[in-house]
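stage 2 :: seqdesign
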Protein backbone atom coordinates (compact mmCIF):
# COMPACT_ATOMS: atom_id res chain seq x y z
CA UNK A 1 0.00 0.00 0.00
CA UNK A 2 1.21 3.50 -0.79
CA UNK A 3 2.20 5.66 2.21
CA UNK A 4 -0.47 8.12 3.33
CA UNK A 5 -0.10 11.89 2.91
CA UNK A 6 -0.95 14.37 5.65
CA UNK A 7 -4.50 14.66 4.29
CA UNK A 8 -4.94 10.90 4.64
CA UNK A 9 -4.76 10.07 0.93
CA UNK A 10 -2.16 7.62 -0.37
CA UNK A 11 1.03 9.33 -1.59
CA UNK A 12 1.01 9.97 -5.33
CA UNK A 13 3.40 8.86 -8.03
CA UNK A 14 6.45 11.12 -8.06
CA UNK A 15 6.99 11.10 -11.82
CA UNK A 16 3.99 9.63 -13.58
CA UNK A 17 4.66 7.94 -16.86
CA UNK A 18 1.76 6.95 -19.11
CA UNK A 19 1.68 3.58 -20.87
CA UNK A 20 0.65 4.07 -24.50
CA UNK A 21 -1.94 1.69 -25.95
CA UNK A 22 -2.51 3.49 -29.21
CA UNK A 23 -5.45 3.02 -31.58
CA UNK A 24 -4.71 0.93 -34.66
CA UNK A 25 -7.24 2.93 -36.69
CA UNK A 26 -7.34 6.74 -36.62
CA UNK A 27 -10.43 8.85 -37.34
CA UNK A 28 -10.58 11.70 -39.79
CA UNK A 29 -10.53 15.14 -38.13
CA UNK A 30 -13.42 17.30 -39.45
CA UNK A 31 -12.43 20.34 -41.51
CA UNK A 32 -11.77 23.39 -39.30
CA UNK A 33 -14.72 25.22 -40.88
CA UNK A 34 -17.12 22.57 -39.53
CA UNK A 35 -15.88 22.61 -35.94
CA UNK A 36 -18.36 23.51 -33.23
CA UNK A 37 -17.85 23.23 -29.47
CA UNK A 38 -17.36 19.82 -27.90
CA UNK A 39 -19.00 17.48 -30.37
CA UNK A 40 -16.15 15.43 -31.81
CA UNK A 41 -13.33 13.84 -29.85
CA UNK A 42 -9.79 12.82 -30.62
CA UNK A 43 -8.58 9.24 -31.09
CA UNK A 44 -7.43 8.68 -27.49
CA UNK A 45 -8.08 9.39 -23.85
CA UNK A 46 -5.82 9.32 -20.81
CA UNK A 47 -7.03 7.32 -17.81
CA UNK A 48 -5.79 6.75 -14.25
CA UNK A 49 -7.56 4.65 -11.61
CA UNK A 50 -7.72 5.19 -7.86
CA UNK A 51 -8.53 3.13 -4.85
CA UNK A 52 -7.95 3.92 -1.22
CA UNK A 53 -5.30 1.24 -0.87
CA UNK A 54 -3.14 2.12 -3.88
CA UNK A 55 -3.85 5.75 -4.56
CA UNK A 56 -3.72 6.72 -8.25
CA UNK A 57 -2.43 3.84 -10.36
CA UNK A 58 -2.14 2.47 -13.90
CA UNK A 59 -1.74 5.72 -15.88
CA UNK A 60 -2.36 4.98 -19.55
CA UNK A 61 -3.40 6.43 -22.88
CA UNK A 62 -5.97 4.23 -24.62
CA UNK A 63 -8.24 4.52 -27.67
CA UNK A 64 -11.17 6.91 -27.05
CA UNK A 65 -14.32 5.01 -26.14
CA UNK A 66 -17.04 4.36 -23.57
CA UNK A 67 -16.04 3.87 -19.93
CA UNK A 68 -17.12 0.67 -18.24
CA UNK A 69 -19.02 1.99 -15.22
CA UNK A 70 -21.10 -0.02 -12.80
CA UNK A 71 -24.70 1.33 -12.78
CA UNK A 72 -24.25 1.81 -9.02
CA UNK A 73 -21.17 4.04 -9.49
CA UNK A 74 -21.47 6.90 -6.99
CA UNK A 75 -21.03 9.64 -9.58
CA UNK A 76 -24.17 8.51 -11.38
CA UNK A 77 -26.27 8.89 -8.23
CA UNK A 78 -24.75 11.61 -6.10
CA UNK A 79 -22.74 13.59 -8.68
CA UNK A 80 -19.41 13.13 -6.91
CA UNK A 81 -17.28 14.36 -9.75
CA UNK A 82 -15.43 17.41 -11.03
CA UNK A 83 -13.71 18.63 -14.13
CA UNK A 84 -11.60 21.37 -15.59
CA UNK A 85 -11.35 22.78 -19.09
CA UNK A 86 -8.32 24.18 -20.87
CA UNK A 87 -7.17 24.69 -24.42
CA UNK A 88 -4.22 23.93 -26.65
CA UNK A 89 -3.62 26.12 -29.70
CA UNK A 90 -1.70 25.61 -32.90
CA UNK A 91 0.32 28.75 -33.44
CA UNK A 92 1.02 30.38 -36.75
CA UNK A 93 4.44 28.68 -36.52
CA UNK A 94 2.75 25.25 -36.37
CA UNK A 95 3.72 24.68 -32.71
CA UNK A 96 1.15 23.40 -30.20
CA UNK A 97 0.92 25.36 -26.94
CA UNK A 98 -1.29 25.02 -23.86
CA UNK A 99 -2.76 28.15 -22.29
CA UNK A 100 -2.10 28.29 -18.54
CA UNK A 101 -1.62 24.54 -18.13
CA UNK A 102 -0.22 24.82 -14.60
CA UNK A 103 -3.00 26.98 -13.28
CA UNK A 104 -5.66 24.63 -14.63
CA UNK A 105 -3.91 21.63 -13.05
CA UNK A 106 -3.70 23.52 -9.76
CA UNK A 107 -7.41 24.32 -9.83
CA UNK A 108 -8.27 20.67 -10.49
CA UNK A 109 -6.12 19.73 -7.52
CA UNK A 110 -7.40 22.43 -5.17
CA UNK A 111 -11.11 21.89 -5.85
CA UNK A 112 -11.05 18.20 -4.95
CA UNK A 113 -11.10 18.63 -1.18
CA UNK A 114 -14.48 20.41 -1.18
CA UNK A 115 -15.97 17.40 -3.00
CA UNK A 116 -14.18 14.79 -0.83
CA UNK A 117 -12.40 13.60 -3.96
CA UNK A 118 -8.76 12.47 -3.63
CA UNK A 119 -6.78 15.29 -5.26
CA UNK A 120 -4.98 14.59 -8.51
CA UNK A 121 -1.50 16.02 -7.94
CA UNK A 122 -0.44 18.63 -10.45
CA UNK A 123 2.37 16.54 -12.00
CA UNK A 124 -0.09 13.69 -12.63
CA UNK A 125 -2.71 15.95 -14.22
CA UNK A 126 -0.07 17.64 -16.32
CA UNK A 127 1.45 14.33 -17.44
CA UNK A 128 -2.00 13.01 -18.40
CA UNK A 129 -2.82 16.09 -20.48
CA UNK A 130 0.58 16.15 -22.17
CA UNK A 131 0.48 12.39 -22.89
CA UNK A 132 -2.96 12.67 -24.49
CA UNK A 133 -2.20 15.75 -26.60
CA UNK A 134 1.14 14.26 -27.69
CA UNK A 135 -0.69 11.16 -28.93
CA UNK A 136 -3.33 13.27 -30.68
CA UNK A 137 -1.30 16.31 -31.71
CA UNK A 138 -2.60 16.08 -35.29
CA UNK A 139 -6.04 16.88 -33.90
CA UNK A 140 -5.07 20.40 -32.84
CA UNK A 141 -6.68 22.56 -35.53
CA UNK A 142 -4.90 25.55 -37.00
CA UNK A 143 -7.47 28.01 -38.35
CA UNK A 144 -8.04 31.30 -36.48
CA UNK A 145 -10.54 30.81 -33.68
CA UNK A 146 -10.08 27.04 -33.43
CA UNK A 147 -8.31 25.11 -30.69
CA UNK A 148 -8.20 21.77 -28.90
CA UNK A 149 -10.45 21.90 -25.82
CA UNK A 150 -9.15 19.54 -23.14
CA UNK A 151 -11.40 18.16 -20.44
CA UNK A 152 -9.71 16.54 -17.38
CA UNK A 153 -12.41 14.90 -15.25
CA UNK A 154 -12.54 12.92 -12.00
CA UNK A 155 -15.50 10.71 -11.18
CA UNK A 156 -16.40 8.50 -8.23
CA UNK A 157 -16.57 5.04 -9.76
CA UNK A 158 -17.15 2.89 -6.68
CA UNK A 159 -20.41 0.91 -6.94
CA UNK A 160 -22.05 1.86 -3.65
CA UNK A 161 -25.35 3.56 -2.86
CA UNK A 162 -24.54 4.74 0.65
CA UNK A 163 -23.92 8.45 0.94
CA UNK A 164 -20.25 8.93 1.79
CA UNK A 165 -17.08 9.72 -0.19
CA UNK A 166 -16.39 6.90 -2.63
CA UNK A 167 -13.35 4.66 -2.26
CA UNK A 168 -12.72 4.28 -6.00
CA UNK A 169 -12.31 6.95 -8.67
CA UNK A 170 -11.39 7.34 -12.31
CA UNK A 171 -9.45 10.33 -13.58
CA UNK A 172 -9.66 10.72 -17.34
CA UNK A 173 -8.76 13.33 -19.91
CA UNK A 174 -10.52 13.71 -23.24
CA UNK A 175 -10.03 16.33 -25.94
CA UNK A 176 -12.17 17.92 -28.62
CA UNK A 177 -11.14 20.11 -31.55
CA UNK A 178 -13.40 23.16 -31.29
CA UNK A 179 -14.52 26.29 -33.08
CA UNK A 180 -16.17 29.23 -31.33
CA UNK A 181 -18.15 28.35 -28.18
CA UNK A 182 -21.56 29.74 -29.14
CA UNK A 183 -21.53 29.81 -32.92
CA UNK A 184 -19.56 32.97 -33.56
CA UNK A 185 -16.57 34.24 -31.56
CA UNK A 186 -17.00 37.49 -29.67
CA UNK A 187 -20.68 37.79 -30.55
CA UNK A 188 -22.67 39.99 -28.14
CA UNK A 189 -25.14 38.24 -25.84
CA UNK A 190 -28.42 39.45 -24.40
CA UNK A 191 -28.57 38.47 -20.75
CA UNK A 192 -31.44 38.14 -18.27
CA UNK A 193 -30.62 39.03 -14.68
CA UNK A 194 -31.80 36.02 -12.66
CA UNK A 195 -33.94 36.80 -9.65
CA UNK A 196 -35.59 33.45 -8.98
CA UNK A 197 -33.15 30.56 -9.32
CA UNK A 198 -29.79 30.20 -7.57
CA UNK A 199 -26.66 28.70 -9.10
CA UNK A 200 -24.69 28.59 -5.92
CA UNK A 201 -24.59 30.06 -2.42
CA UNK A 202 -21.58 30.97 -0.29
CA UNK A 203 -20.57 27.72 1.39
CA UNK A 204 -21.87 25.69 -1.57
CA UNK A 205 -20.03 24.33 -4.60
CA UNK A 206 -19.84 27.46 -6.76
CA UNK A 207 -16.12 27.93 -6.18
CA UNK A 208 -15.22 24.53 -7.63
CA UNK A 209 -15.76 23.08 -11.08
CA UNK A 210 -18.33 20.52 -9.99
CA UNK A 211 -20.66 19.24 -12.69
CA UNK A 212 -23.45 19.83 -10.15
CA UNK A 213 -23.09 23.62 -10.61
CA UNK A 214 -23.87 23.33 -14.27
CA UNK A 215 -26.99 21.21 -13.85
CA UNK A 216 -28.15 23.77 -11.26
CA UNK A 217 -27.97 26.42 -13.98
CA UNK A 218 -29.97 24.72 -16.74
CA UNK A 219 -33.55 25.55 -15.70
CA UNK A 220 -32.80 29.26 -15.46
CA UNK A 221 -30.91 29.28 -18.78
CA UNK A 222 -33.74 27.48 -20.58
CA UNK A 223 -36.35 29.87 -19.17
CA UNK A 224 -34.21 32.85 -20.20
CA UNK A 225 -33.87 31.48 -23.75
CA UNK A 226 -37.65 31.07 -23.98
CA UNK A 227 -37.87 34.79 -23.18
CA UNK A 228 -35.44 35.79 -25.94
CA UNK A 229 -32.20 36.00 -23.93
CA UNK A 230 -28.99 34.07 -24.53
CA UNK A 231 -28.15 33.38 -20.89
CA UNK A 232 -28.63 34.55 -17.31
CA UNK A 233 -26.63 36.74 -15.01
CA UNK A 234 -26.51 35.04 -11.64
CA UNK A 235 -27.22 37.09 -8.56
CA UNK A 236 -26.44 36.27 -4.93
CA UNK A 237 -28.49 33.57 -3.23
CA UNK A 238 -29.79 35.77 -0.39
CA UNK A 239 -31.02 39.03 -1.91
CA UNK A 240 -30.81 38.42 -5.68
CA UNK A 241 -29.03 41.75 -5.89
CA UNK A 242 -25.28 41.26 -6.05
CA UNK A 243 -23.92 40.05 -9.35
CA UNK A 244 -21.96 36.79 -9.47
CA UNK A 245 -21.35 35.07 -12.81
CA UNK A 246 -22.78 35.38 -16.30
CA UNK A 247 -23.84 32.02 -17.72
CA UNK A 248 -20.78 29.80 -17.26
CA UNK A 249 -18.38 32.76 -17.22
CA UNK A 250 -16.95 35.28 -14.80
CA UNK A 251 -18.31 38.80 -15.07
CA UNK A 252 -16.60 42.16 -15.64
CA UNK A 253 -18.41 45.52 -15.73
CA UNK A 254 -16.92 48.84 -16.78
CA UNK A 255 -18.42 51.80 -14.97
CA UNK A 256 -16.74 55.04 -15.97
CA UNK A 257 -13.04 54.19 -15.85
CA UNK A 258 -13.34 51.44 -13.24
CA UNK A 259 -13.48 47.76 -14.21
CA UNK A 260 -15.31 45.80 -11.57
CA UNK A 261 -15.47 42.03 -11.11
CA UNK A 262 -17.28 40.35 -8.21
CA UNK A 263 -14.90 39.06 -5.52
CA UNK A 264 -14.32 35.33 -5.08
CA UNK A 265 -16.15 34.36 -1.94
CA UNK A 266 -16.90 30.68 -2.36
CA UNK A 267 -19.86 31.02 -4.71
CA UNK A 268 -17.84 32.23 -7.73
CA UNK A 269 -15.36 30.19 -9.76
CA UNK A 270 -11.74 31.36 -9.69
CA UNK A 271 -11.61 31.62 -13.47
CA UNK A 272 -8.30 31.31 -15.28
CA UNK A 273 -9.44 33.79 -17.93
CA UNK A 274 -10.67 36.07 -15.11
CA UNK A 275 -7.17 36.05 -13.66
CA UNK A 276 -5.64 36.73 -17.09
CA UNK A 277 -8.06 39.63 -17.67
CA UNK A 278 -7.29 41.20 -14.28
CA UNK A 279 -3.56 40.85 -14.92
CA UNK A 280 -3.74 42.52 -18.33
CA UNK A 281 -6.08 45.31 -17.20
CA UNK A 282 -3.79 46.20 -14.30
CA UNK A 283 -0.79 46.27 -16.65
CA UNK A 284 -2.74 48.53 -18.97
CA UNK A 285 -3.22 50.87 -15.98
CA UNK A 286 -6.97 50.48 -15.68
CA UNK A 287 -8.49 50.75 -12.25
CA UNK A 288 -9.60 47.18 -11.47
CA UNK A 289 -11.72 46.37 -8.42
CA UNK A 290 -12.74 43.00 -7.09
CA UNK A 291 -15.73 44.20 -5.12
CA UNK A 292 -19.44 43.50 -4.65
CA UNK A 293 -21.55 45.04 -7.38
CA UNK A 294 -25.31 45.35 -6.94
CA UNK A 295 -28.03 45.80 -9.55
CA UNK A 296 -28.89 49.15 -7.98
CA UNK A 297 -25.44 50.44 -8.93
CA UNK A 298 -25.76 49.02 -12.46
CA UNK A 299 -29.17 50.65 -12.99
CA UNK A 300 -27.94 53.98 -11.67
CA UNK A 301 -24.78 53.84 -13.84
CA UNK A 302 -26.97 53.01 -16.83
CA UNK A 303 -29.29 55.96 -16.11
CA UNK A 304 -26.31 58.26 -15.59
CA UNK A 305 -24.53 57.13 -18.76
CA UNK A 306 -21.45 55.68 -17.03
CA UNK A 307 -22.21 51.98 -17.70
CA UNK A 308 -19.73 51.53 -20.52
CA UNK A 309 -19.21 47.79 -20.98
CA UNK A 310 -20.21 44.43 -19.57
CA UNK A 311 -18.58 41.17 -20.57
CA UNK A 312 -18.16 37.59 -19.52
CA UNK A 313 -14.80 35.84 -19.57
CA UNK A 314 -14.06 32.13 -19.61
CA UNK A 315 -11.95 29.47 -21.28
CA UNK A 316 -14.53 28.39 -23.82
CA UNK A 317 -15.50 31.78 -25.31
CA UNK A 318 -12.59 33.90 -23.97
CA UNK A 319 -14.60 37.18 -23.91
CA UNK A 320 -18.34 37.54 -24.56
CA UNK A 321 -19.64 41.11 -24.70
CA UNK A 322 -23.08 41.73 -23.17
CA UNK A 323 -25.37 43.80 -25.40
CA UNK A 324 -28.26 44.23 -22.96
CA UNK A 325 -29.33 43.24 -19.46
CA UNK A 326 -32.95 42.28 -18.81
CA UNK A 327 -33.99 43.43 -15.33
CA UNK A 328 -37.46 43.91 -13.84
CA UNK A 329 -39.13 43.95 -17.27
CA UNK A 330 -36.71 46.45 -18.81
CA UNK A 331 -33.74 45.89 -21.14
CA UNK A 332 -30.75 47.99 -20.16
CA UNK A 333 -28.85 48.35 -23.43
CA UNK A 334 -25.09 48.49 -22.95
CA UNK A 335 -22.86 50.55 -25.29
CA UNK A 336 -25.61 50.70 -27.94
CA UNK A 337 -25.56 46.89 -28.01
CA UNK A 338 -22.00 46.86 -29.40
CA UNK A 339 -18.86 45.24 -27.94
CA UNK A 340 -16.84 47.75 -25.93
CA UNK A 341 -13.25 48.78 -26.59
CA UNK A 342 -11.83 47.03 -23.50
CA UNK A 343 -13.62 43.77 -24.36
CA UNK A 344 -12.17 43.92 -27.88
CA UNK A 345 -8.68 44.75 -26.66
CA UNK A 346 -8.72 41.88 -24.18
CA UNK A 347 -10.04 39.39 -26.72
CA UNK A 348 -7.35 40.39 -29.22
CA UNK A 349 -4.53 40.42 -26.66
CA UNK A 350 -5.37 37.03 -25.14
CA UNK A 351 -5.90 35.45 -28.57
CA UNK A 352 -2.57 36.83 -29.82
CA UNK A 353 -0.70 35.20 -26.93
CA UNK A 354 -2.62 31.93 -27.35
CA UNK A 355 -1.74 31.62 -31.05
CA UNK A 356 1.88 32.63 -30.46
CA UNK A 357 1.46 35.89 -32.38
CA UNK A 358 2.49 38.07 -29.42
CA UNK A 359 5.19 37.78 -26.78
CA UNK A 360 4.26 35.85 -23.64
CA UNK A 361 5.77 37.88 -20.79
CA UNK A 362 3.74 36.04 -18.12
CA UNK A 363 4.81 32.57 -19.22
CA UNK A 364 1.16 31.59 -19.81
CA UNK A 365 1.93 29.27 -22.71
CA UNK A 366 3.52 25.81 -22.44
CA UNK A 367 4.83 24.39 -25.70
CA UNK A 368 4.35 20.71 -26.47
CA UNK A 369 7.73 19.16 -27.26
C1 LIG B 1 -15.84 28.14 -19.71
O1 LIG B 1 -16.27 29.13 -20.26
O2 LIG B 1 -14.66 27.95 -19.60
C2 LIG B 1 -16.75 27.14 -19.17
O3 LIG B 1 -16.60 26.76 -18.07
C3 LIG B 1 -17.78 26.59 -20.06
C4 LIG B 1 -17.70 25.10 -20.17
C5 LIG B 1 -18.35 24.44 -19.00
C6 LIG B 1 -18.27 24.64 -21.46
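stage 2 :: out
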Amino acid sequence: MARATAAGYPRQMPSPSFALHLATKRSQRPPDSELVFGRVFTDHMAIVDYDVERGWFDPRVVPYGPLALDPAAAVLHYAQGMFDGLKAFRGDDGKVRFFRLDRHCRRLHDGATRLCIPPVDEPLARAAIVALVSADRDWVPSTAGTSLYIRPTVIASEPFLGVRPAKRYTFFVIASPVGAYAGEAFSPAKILVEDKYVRSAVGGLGGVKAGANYIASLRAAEDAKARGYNQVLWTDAHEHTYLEEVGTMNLVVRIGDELVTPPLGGSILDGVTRDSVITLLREWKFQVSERPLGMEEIVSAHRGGSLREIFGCGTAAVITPVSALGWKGEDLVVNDGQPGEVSRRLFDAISAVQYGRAPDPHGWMTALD
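stage 3 :: structure notes
- Residues 85, 248-249, 314-317 surround 2-OXO-4-methylpentanoic acid (CB under 6 Å).
- Residues 211-226 form the longest helix (16 residues).
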